[in-house]
Automatic annotation (TrEMBL):
Required for chromosome condensation and partitioning. Homodimer. Belongs to the SMC family. ATP binds at P32, N33, G34, S35, G36, K37, S38, N39. Contains large globular domains required for ATP hydrolysis at each terminus and a third globular domain forming a flexible hinge near the middle of the molecule. These domains are separated by coiled-coil structures. It is found in: Cytoplasm. The gene is smc. This is Chromosome partition protein Smc. It comes from the Bacteria. The chain holds residues 1 to 180 of 1184 of the full protein.
Length: 180
């Protein structure tokens, strides 16, 4: 499983459609302060289902939509797509290439797609559940996260261990089944 590309359109400072292609191996993102490095990482988190505007340095989710600049008008929509090579089926899907798309309009309307087919947020989250890549995983470590784990409640720490150990999925399925 490998990251192939990230496409941004109207997400934060990326007013113009931008495609980043990742080569095999390690990738570093460099640039001056304020050039959008963190915005790229946030786009990855967002398209994978992030629901906290605060964790994306905003007050409300619509803050991820390009807000305008001296030379450009604000946009009405943010769109991010991420493509994974899944030939080893590391992600729980029959597809050997998986493209996830998330769109958000200023009206509040939002949309998730997996390989072009509209789906629920849950489908996106399920894809990453127990993969070590999900919202609550350690694949992306932001500033302050380390302290949060060390200073967190024992129950929160336990949730972290359950995600790492791969039992979070079963726990969630059990809760869902019990609700029915
Ligand atoms: P640093 O090196 O300081 O960490 P960085 O490369 O990580 O910088 P980012 O934090 O990704 O930079 O980008 C910040 C820029 O993105 C700011 O100029 C900010 O105005 C712009 N930005 C954030 N949200 C939006 C938005 N919704 N619309 C337009 N621009 C935005
Ligand atoms: Mg930054």
């Amino acid at each position: 499983m490998r990251l192939i590309s990230l496409e941004l359109n109207g997400f934060k400072s990326f007013a113009q459609k931008t495609k980043i292609e990742f080569m095999p191996g390690m990738t570093g993102i460099v640039g001056p302060n304020g050039s959008g490095k963190s915005n790229i990482i946030e786009a990855i988190r967002w398209v994978m289902g992030e629901q906290s505007a605060k964790d994306l340095r905003g007050n409300k989710m619509a803050d991820v939509i390009f807000a305008g600049s001296d030379t450009r008008k604000p946009l009405n929509r943010a769109e991010v797509a991420i493509t994974f090579d899944n030939q080893d089926h590391y992600l729980n899907s029959d597809y050997s290439e998986i493209k996830i798309t998330r769109k958000l309009y200023r009206t509040g309307e939002s949309q998730y797609l997996i390989n072009g087919q509209e789906c629920r947020l849950k489908d996106v989250l399920d894809l990453f559940m127990d993969s070590g890549l999900g919202r609550e995983s350690f694949s992306i470590i932001s500033q302050g996260r380390v302290e949060a784990i060390f200073n967190g409640k024992p129950t929160d720490r336990r949730a972290v261990i359950e995600e790492v150990a791969g039992v979070a999925k079963y726990k969630k399925n059990k809760t869902t089944a019990e609700k029915r």
